[in-house]
Write a structure and sequence with these properties.
477 residues, four-stranded antiparallel sheet, 59% helix, mainly alpha, 20 helices, single chain, elongated
């Protein structure tokens, strides 16, 4: 209940006045255990400037038994106000040793004669007189009892007073009930901590294992072992999830028979549960490397070196011969010697095929405009045309420029005749497959080598460097 918060506030005040976190140098499990069994140095011993009344206040707030702490927040506020006035907390002083905060000789011992005056205001004259009378009465009673004892009549006198001299009866404590209460509290604390710290399986298991050991053979022990089994299963599911995610990451590599790359990716994993999955990851990487070795042994030498193939592809591209470049790439993909590079060649084929299809995409827009009058931006300027036909890669149109008496007749043009903005509009933007290659080649046509380099840098790695090199040679010329 709220008294747990009073304890926490006392621990915070201890930290504030001493600069030391209570048991802050211990592990979480040790820290929890020491709240029950450990003792902190008196704040006055750690920081001599701490006033006595503050040390008394913190000791009461950090009493191990909740019943020894303040009974309400109003009482906490009252004790804080008393501390500001130089007074100890209200009520009886705690017995020494019942608080997590120790008590040094600098503060004395509660209940020792002559120590009750600490930090209290002196009584008024009337109160002092009343105390003196009480002392005299007690002294007289003591003398009377002493005399009775000397006369051998002490027992009868005490009996008449209803006082027994026999030993006090020890309270009856049921050990099983006390242990059960302790286990219930430990269980409650552990469950609350686990709920507040999801994913910290090892620390959770350590707490529960201690409870299960102490409560072995009881219902609490069985309940704790069931909880342990559930957390262990949850931990195993988390570990299995890591391995499953690694399998998903490497799936594209395996599809392209990039076994060595997949093995390296698995071994390089350093995220959550890396240590727990190390053995399984090493076994998987070993299997993948064995597959890589088997594949390498079965693959023949390619008919031509890959460098030769790529040089030919780039030469065709720079020369504006996209269909020819595509044919070279597709022929290379059928060569058994290029099986290890099939994923890279497939990416290159998709880029070249997309660029090669761009002109057809543009011509298709004119096909949809047959019989319509449209404004078209040619390299030589804007013209108003009426589209008649699209055939053999050319657009056939009638010139219908308004206000131009000389404009008449029919013209025929291909995609290269269109200027840069007109092509982009008809392509619908730059998000189509092969866009970077196509736009880079358009920039080469326009003589803009810097723009061409920017586009070529985003093409597949197999040709990006070679295209940039080819553009550099053009710039020199």
């Amino acid at each position: 209940d709220f008294r747990a918060d009073i304890y926490a506030l006392g621990a915070s005040m201890y930290h504030m006045v001493t600069g030391c976190v209570p048991f802050g140098d211990k592990t979480p499990d040790e820290m929890l255990e020491l709240q029950v069994s450990g003792t902190l140095p008196d704040p006055m011993d750690v920081n001599p400037e701490v006033p006595q009344q503050v040390a008394w206040l913190i000791e009461k707030m950090m009493c191990k038994d909740p019943a020894g702490r303040q009974a309400s927040w109003a009482e906490v506020r009252s004790d804080l106000a008393r501390a500001k006035k130089g007074l100890r907390p209200g009520g009886d002083a705690l017995p020494e040793g019942v608080s997590t905060v120790g008590r040094s000789a600098a503060r004395g011992r509660a209940g020792v004669p002559g120590m009750a005056f600490l930090n209290e205001k002196k009584p008024a004259a009337g109160a002092r007189l009343a105390r003196l009378v009480a002392v005299l009465v007690l002294a007289a009673a003591g003398i009377w009892l002493f005399a009775a004892a000397r006369a051998g009549k002490l027992d009868s006198v005490l009996a008449r007073l209803g006082i027994s001299m026999g030993p006090p009866a020890a309270p009856v404590v049921d050990p099983a009930a006390a242990a059960a209460a302790m286990w219930r509290q430990d269980w409650k604390n552990a469950v609350e901590w686990i709920a507040a710290h999801p994913g910290r399986y090892d620390e959770s298991l350590a707490m529960l294992t201690r409870i299960a050991t102490e409560a072995a053979g009881t219902a609490h022990g069985e309940m704790t072992r069931a909880k342990i089994a559930g957390i262990q299963a949850e931990k195993q599911r988390a570990i299995a999830g890591v391995l499953e995610r690694l399998q998903q990451v490497t799936a594209p590599m395996l599809a392209g028979q990039q076994f060595e790359e997949a093995a390296q990716a698995i071994l390089a994993y350093a995220g959550e549960w890396a240590e727990e999955t190390r053995e399984e990851r090493m076994a998987r990487a070993s299997d993948l490397r064995a597959q890589a070795a088997t594949l390498a042994a079965a693959i023949p030498e390619p008919a031509r070196p890959l460098e030769t193939v790529l040089d030919e592809v780039v030469a065709e591209l720079v020369g504006g011969k996209l269909p020819e470049a595509l044919a070279v790439v597709e022929a290379a993909m059928t060569d058994p010697g290029f099986v290890p590079r099939v994923a890279e060649l497939e990416a290159l084929r998709a880029e070249v095929a997309g660029a090669a299809a761009a002109d057809a995409r543009i011509l298709e827009t004119f096909t949809r405009q047959k019989g319509l009058q449209v404004n078209v931006e040619l390299r030589k300027g804007k013209r108003t045309l009426k589209v008649r036909d699209v055939r053999d890669g050319h657009v056939v149109a009638e010139v219908v420029d308004v206000g131009d008496a000389m404009a008449h007749g029919t013209i025929e043009f291909d995609v290269r005749t269109l200027n840069y903005p007109e092509r982009l509009r008809r392509l619908g933007g730059t998000t189509f497959a092969g866009a970077n290659l196509y736009l880079g080649l358009m920039a080469v046509e326009a003589g803009s080598t810097d723009r061409a380099r920017r586009y070529f840098a985003q093409t597949p790695e197999l040709i990006a460097g070679r295209l940039a090199e080819a553009v550099g040679k053009m710039a020199v010329r």
